[in-house]
């Protein structure tokens, strides 16, 4: 396996990000919303992780003053379980730490794998958003405060 590369996404990554998005979420973001995140919204950053051959995942967040709100994190299903999510999130968290950003996200309360990952990277539970994901699926609010 070649070394992973973490980099800022560009318009050429859009189709692959959309493919990962659509296969990862019950209510995926639209192509236009993802395009705007990558190409237009200055307060938004999107990072991708490559395995030397292909984009295998992405992470996006919105900067609000001194906070970064993580919108989405997804790894292609065929690459899950290999530590790529930890590498991607950990690398982006280092970038945000250098800028002294606090970081927040919501995660489905029943997504134990993701919650364990986030806790291992320093996130702490801060509350619950009732029915955040619809049909009775609550969102756990997590923070890294700086």
Short description:
By secondary structure, the protein is of the alpha+beta class.
Note the run of SSEs as H and E.
EHHEEEHEHEE
> End-to-end span in angstroms?
35 Å
Quaternary form:
single chain
**Lateral strand order in the biggest sheet:** 1-2-3-4-5-7-6
Shape category: globular
- What is the number of E strands? 7
Classified in CATH, the superfamily of the domain at 5-103 is Gcn5-related N-acetyltransferase (GNAT)
Biggest sheet details: 7 strands, mixed
CA-based gyration radius: 15 Å
What is the CATH topology of the domain at 5-103? Answer: Aminopeptidase
Low-confidence stretches: none
Top CATH class of the domain at 5-103 = Alpha Beta
- Rounded mean pLDDT score: 94
Helix content: 25-40%
CATH architectural label of the domain at 5-103: 3-Layer(aba) Sandwich
User: Helices and strands: which structural class?
Assistant: alpha+beta
Describe this structure in words.
The structure is a single chain. The protein has 146 residues and is of the alpha+beta class. It has a domain at 5-103: Aminopeptidase (3-Layer(aba) Sandwich). 30% of the residues lie in helices and 34% in strands. The protein is built from 4 helices and 7 strands, in the order βααβββαβαββ. Strands 1-2-3-4-5-7-6 form a 7-stranded mixed sheet. The longest helix has 15 residues, at 84-98. The chain starts with a strand and ends with a strand. The relative contact order is 0.15. The model has no long low-confidence stretch (mean pLDDT 94).
Descriptors:
146 residues, alpha+beta, Aminopeptidase, seven-stranded mixed sheet, 7 strands, globular
């Amino acid at each position: 396996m070649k070394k992973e590369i973490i980099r800022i996404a560009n318009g050429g990554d859009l189709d692959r990000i959309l493919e990962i998005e659509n296969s990862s979420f019950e209510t995926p973001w639209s192509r236009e919303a993802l395009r705007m995140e990558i190409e237009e919204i200055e307060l938004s950053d999107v990072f991708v992780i490559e395995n030397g051959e292909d984009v295998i995942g992405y992470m996006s967040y919105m900067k609000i003053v001194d906070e970064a709100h993580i919108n989405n994190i997804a790894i292609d299903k065929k690459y899950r379980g290999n530590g790529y999510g930890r590498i991607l999130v950990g690398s982006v968290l280092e970038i945000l730490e250098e800028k002294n950003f606090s970081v927040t996200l919501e995660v489905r309360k029943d997504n134990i794998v993701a919650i364990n990952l986030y806790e291992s990277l320093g996130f702490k539970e801060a509350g619950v958003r009732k029915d955040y994901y619809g049909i009775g699926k609550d969102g756990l609010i997590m923070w890294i405060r700086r």
